């Protein structure tokens, strides 16, 4: 048995929402307790945290890795390095690959590649319909047996409500979690900005925030009809929040997430057509951003994710309307989240409740907490460390971050997976 004693640490506990100085003992890959100030248990390794923050490792729900089919944008090797450097100990990967992960054989390939090339945990999702085309549902049971932890077609919204209702009914019978992208597909098709004065002045094709509300309303009706376990991948507008609140009040098995980009950026950051800021859904107004931040604080929105979407240079260096959507975020998730901490909008325990505990709870994982017996998946970080983001220093193969050259705070010092060190800052 091996043991590690972390001393002089600022322990960020998302379960008790506490932030206090103390020690943490790890034995044989699991958390063994918190020794008191007068205790000095023997340990093989002692790590003096020097007052830095020690928190559960981040569980990032919705990471895009380019294997199979788009390895030139991101491989499991580069994504794994980026995750470890960013304090992410578990990646929940998306199935919107080429080909899509809609059969057990493709899923098994992904798991083999992930196990061989990544230092972090990788839990893959499968598609809800074959080819993400919204016409025929996948064999959800076989995919679950092969290791799929959830099912989603990503931003390909199923237009045929009958097909979707059948898929949700089947998922409900198996206890599967379905992750949906709440948008009205007709209104949002071809849009690259949120409707408003800014989009009009820039001449960009836009979409009303109501498209998100309409998509969520349809999904909530189907959840009520089928009783499926449901997670909205991104809620980004104030107008969608009442529908989410009603669904939770009615006792539906519903959770929601939001990307760190929609929590820390707004539509004005697009400025003069900066394509690194082109996302799906598009960046919203400042009022929407503040409403969503408040919803994370109250717990109405459960999960913060990076929505890591690598795109190569050729895909981004195009006119704004034609450029690919998405941004990388595995390494920038934590420092971007520190913006919310330093602004006083959210505390560190609230942030790690949304980035670690809630994703673990939703997926039935034992990690995401500092409780005794939990896996010792940990991140040590300095929330105050200033730096200027240089996209060329990222471990990700693609460098499409909207935070390039921005002043940021928050650096990961070390990352541990089941008590094994997988990253240590130089």
UniProtKB/TrEMBL annotation:
One of its GO terms (biological process) is pyrimidine nucleotide biosynthetic process. The keyword Nucleotide-binding does not apply. The keyword Disulfide bond does not apply. Keywords: Hydrolase, Pyrimidine biosynthesis, Zinc. Its EC number is 3.5.2.3. It is an enzyme of class 3 (hydrolase). One of its GO terms (molecular function) is metal ion binding. Pfam families: Amidohydro_3, DHOase. One of its GO terms (cellular component) is cytoplasm. Residues 343-423 form the Amidohydrolase domain. Residues 54-237 form the Dihydroorotase catalytic domain. This is Dihydroorotase. It comes from Marinibacterium profundimaris.
